[in-house]
Records
---
Amino acid sequence: EAKDAGRNTSVFFDDDLQTRLNTRLEMQRELHRGIVENELELFYQTKVNCQQTCVGVEALVRWFHPVKGMISPVDFISIAEQSGDILLLGKWVMHTACETLVAWSNDPIRSDWTMSVNVSVRQLKADNFVAEVTQCLQDTGAPANKLILEITESMLLGNTESIIVKMQALRSIGVRFALDDFGTGYSNLSYLQRLPLDQLKIDRSFVSTNQDQATAGLAQPQLTQSIISLGKTLGLIVVAEGVETKAQFEALTSQGCDIFQGFHFSQPTRLNALPQPNKK
Ligand code: C2E
Ligand code: MG
Ligand code: MG
Ligand code: MG
């Protein structure tokens, strides 16, 4: 932040900036300690198909700070990215998610569920990314064909070729890829066609509105329809995130969306609080 400011203005550290820097550095130190001391926990949010049957989960990390309580990834992922601790954090997330897959491998229903894991740009760009994921699958014994890695459009800026090579290597052992938050970033449609993707996730800003209304329809129905059509044209499975109402679910279903995720179905929850698989 200081560097960014420095490009346009002459640099002088006022008290405010100094305080902000101290806080950020302090957060970086705290987060590092928290990772080492096992304060991270994975929550899981279910994903359902058109029949509202669960087909998988997305792993979403939380930080339980001894004093501050639960901290959202929105408030610490960027700090981890800045400090480089995202590599340590990402490795822990991948390992923990794979262990959960293994724990489900003998469950009559959950053994079919996929596990989606968010991957950050620094992880994907690291030279050992493919080796690390492969090693993680080997160490845990998790089935590669249940693992879906979620990447975002902004990761594709620059270095696209080497990212495609890594994606192909992982896909050759069965790992799948989803493009997360689609429509909000840098949309280069020619990239989209070249990327070895399996799923396209419509960003939740097109799905749900900010109003707290149980009957609310889609926030941007023309855009969700366009994204679904685009996904289908490219042969991808289309996933909608942020589905908060029945009306949104029904509208997306009639637009051809395949998989749905959101508060209408379930909140992200602790592993042991996931819905019991009973009814079909
Ligand atoms: P994301 O991957 O797009 O995950 C979806 C976010 O939307 C989650 O927020 C989820 O709780 C929230 N959400 C789900 N359904 C609804 C809904 O119906 N309405 C609304 N308003 N929100 C909904 P969360 O858990 O706070 O995570 C935020 C972001 O943090 C994630 O966005 C992802 O980019 C990042 N993140 C989370 N876990 C990890 C991780 O392990 N590694 C990395 N690199 N990033 C992570
Ligand atoms: Mg995601
Ligand atoms: Mg998303
Ligand atoms: Mg999102």
---
Amino acid sequence: DAVTLEQRFQSKVDADERIEPKDWMPDAYRQTLIRQISQHAHSEIVGMLPEGNWITRAPSLRRKAVLIAKVQDEGGHGMYLYSAAETLGISRDELIEQLLAGTAKYSSIFNYPTPTWADVGAIGWLVDGAAIMNQIPICRCSYGPYARAMVRICKEESFHQRQGFEIMMTLARGTAEQKRMAQDALNRWWWPSLMMFGPNDATSKHTAQSMRWKIKRFTNDELRQKFIDITVPQAEYLGLKVPDPDLRWDEQTQHYIHGPIDWKEFEDVLKGNGPCNRERLETRRRAHDEGRWVREAALAYAEKQRARDTQ
Ligand code: 3HC
């Protein structure tokens, strides 16, 4: 009966066994994974927009080639993740419809503008840095397809983070104006990057349950702290100042203590009132409409293939 099914499921999770698509799982576990994996996929796809904005204006052919490769990777990450979500019994069309209708979330971080080239560096360094911090533990999450998708994604993320840090290093060691651009980008991306990890554990709706199901291996605050502890020394190495007057190293706990996060800003962005929310969704809706003929042609071609193969 349901109780033993649930108990058997939980003891598999407790024993660090993988749950696969054909295994029995509580509906709430399935729904949580559909929610998280699809929003993760939406983040990858919408995440192509802020950086894509700089492909035609990269300062050198090398930077342009690296940025094209990175943005292309993000699209691929979106595809892996949509495929992982489909194993839970929801169609790609439904998932994309939820994004375009505004009923599904994507990471708040992609609702911020990229006014200068230094933003491409700050995104690689901070946003992909935070994404790596969040994604490495998901390689060990209890749901097989999600964990396996993460292994490939994390390998590519480290390239994303390195190329961003290299851009920041070039600017920080460049002219006074370039160093000012790098500092300005750090000032604008620092706090929104901390918000990527989600609300504090005390107010997080899902963290406790996601920890029990081993969808999460660390809580939001634990990952955020790891990110801060690793990233502050990198900023110092660049000769840049983290825009947090309360930031200080605590010898006792061996962690940085940081200032308060503006959760009002976070809630506003989640409600759709961030600097670029409307523009991002409009761009996705336009791309979806303009790409309709491609989807129709691909389906017609597949139909012809099928008809020919069955003759
Ligand atoms: N942006 C948007 N929504 C967020 C958010 C953020 N930064 N942080 C939390 N939320 C939402 C949650 O989705 C949830 O809303 P919902 O119930 O409608 O889905 C609500 O706020 C409560 O937050 P919780 O912490 O309780 O929710 P979760 O347990 O889902 O934790 C999370 C949030 C840590 C983002 C988790 O969903 C997660 O780890 N997701 C996978 C990682 C991911 O999506 N990363 C995006 C990074 S960007 C990226 O990958 C591209 C990179 O390559 C550049």
